[in-house]
Amino acid sequence: MGSWCLFGIPSIVAIVLGHVATRKTKQGIRPGHGMAVAGLVLGYIVVVPALIVSVFFILMRPATVAEWVNNVFMLLTGISNS
Fold first, then answer.
1. How far apart are CA 36 and CA 45, in angstroms?
2. Chain centroid offset of residue 71 CA
3. Cβ-based neighbour number of residue 80 at 10 Å
4. What is the pLDDT along the chain (82 residues), one digit of tens a residue?
5. Residue 35 near residue 42 (C-beta atoms within 8 A)
6. Gap between the Cα atoms of 40 and 21, Å rounded
7. What integer pLDDT is reported at residue 2 of this predicted model?
8. 33 and 25 Cβ atoms separated by less than 8 Å
9. How does DSSP classify residue 23?
10. What would the 3-class secondary structure string for 49-67 be?
11. d(Cα 39, Cα 10) in Å, to the nearest integer?
12. Judging by beta carbons within 10 Å of its beta carbon (0-12, 13-18, 19+), is residue 39 exposed, middle or buried?
């Protein structure tokens, strides 16, 4: 939840460091491969939905939140507004 308040920066850091740690722990020379994968998963769990919502919001440019929710619902269900 804190990542949303900090503009997703902790999640992006978790993804970058998770990839670095996964590369370093892949051969088994260093411990912590599970923690690296956990950092990747948790980082992507926050970043991917945030990107999807941002793209929907930018493409639709609604006047109100209710209009935005209605547009997303119509887009997902295939109902036209006419």
1. 14
2. 21
3. 5
4. 455 566 678 888 889 999 999 998 988 788 999 999 998 998 898 888 888 877 877 777 767 778 878 877 888 887 765 5
5. no
6. 10
7. 54
8. yes
9. H
10. HHHHHHHHHHHHCCCCHHH
11. 10
12. buried
Alpha carbons 81 and 9: distance in angstroms, whole number: 37
Least Cα distance to 72 among 64, 60, 82, 81 occurs for 60
Q: Tokens 């926050």 label which residue?
A: 46
Q: Give the separation between CA 55 and CA 47, rounded to whole angstroms.
A: 12
pLDDT reported for residue 80: 65
Q: How open is the CA angle 56-54-35, to the nearest 5 degrees?
A: 130
